[in-house]
Amino acid sequence: MEIDQLETFLAVVTYGGFHKAAEVLHVSQPAVSGRIKALEASLGVALFARGRTQPTLSPAGKALRPHAEQLLRTVAMARQAVHQLQPRTGGALHIAAALSVCTYLMPDVMKGYQAAHPNVMVHLRSGNSFQVLKMVVDGEADIGVARSLHHPDVETMTLRDDPLILVGHPAHPTLKKRHVSLEEIESWPLIFYDRGSSDWTLSQGLFRRAGLLPNVVLEVETIEAAKRMVERKLGFSFLPQIALTRELRDGRLVAIAIQDAEPLSRNLDVIHRRHHPLAPEAQMLLSLLRTATNTALPPGKPSSRHAPTAK
């Protein structure tokens, strides 16, 4: 079992296929297949169910995933510990972050950061996960914050889970109970956002794998637009937990548990270039990010507050 095999395994899981993983890792698709086969041979098990349009994890693959993520986190921490012996200094910090991270997480983080480092010039750029990864790999950003980012040229440290949660307005006429089947949800008015993004792919794939066709009543460009539509009782949407802190806490939106489907889990990750030690300014930001992600997000469970009687 080798590090590049585990990175490749997680890339296939994250990006939903061997071809896309090859693009992201900048290797050929046969190289990706070879690494997966070598990993499976070393473990004596099949990690993916073959013969489908999109590879899905086998029971062994599901068991391996959290351990692979932990191993890579340990490797990243070991490298960082060595790099910290020779820290570099600088008066500027360049950050790349997913748009949702910039919107819902970074304002509070930056308030604490500027109080501690008032003389550091911070440059914050947003983009999708692929753009964040590219900015870090190309040296345009010291740190990237996005979801499920793995690449041979970066160190990946997971901050926390940021699952997609099905939410609706507590007074929506369709919402009769908080625990439902995926087949029931198929006919609900659903709102999707950012067609082609990882969020869109994950939520659409939930129905596709079950042979169901979701009732899409609206497609919008952003998470915030989708959330506003849900607040106005126009439908239900799968939204990132990080975007729902206040709404779930205040009861303006409610989470709906799907009984017969796996959670749409994703990691919120921070990355930096491998073999490039983090400056003290960047290490402080990383500490604040860890604190914020450990305390700011509510649990993604249906609340009993204002809950209708289940049928």
How large is the radius of gyration?
Answer: 20 Å
Outline: globular
Tally of helical segments: 12
CATH architecture of the largest domain: 3-Layer(aba) Sandwich
- CATH-derived topology of the largest domain: D-Maltodextrin-Binding Protein, domain 2
Provide key terms for this protein.
311 residues, alpha/beta, Arc Repressor Mutant, subunit A, D-Maltodextrin-Binding Protein, domain 2, 12 helices, 14 strands, globular, disordered C terminus
Would you write up a description of this structure?
It is a single chain. Mean pLDDT is 85; it is low at 86-90 and 296-311. The chain has 311 residues and is an alpha/beta fold. The protein is built from twelve helices and 14 strands. 43% of the residues lie in helices and 20% in strands. It is globular. α9 links the parallel β9 (190-193) and β10 (216-220). The N and C termini lie far apart (49 Å). The protein has three domains: 3-82, Orthogonal Bundle (Arc Repressor Mutant, subunit A); 88-160 and 266-295, Periplasmic binding protein-like II (D-Maltodextrin-Binding Protein, domain 2, 3-Layer(aba) Sandwich), CATH 3.40.190.10; 164-258, D-Maltodextrin-Binding Protein, domain 2, CATH 3.40.190.
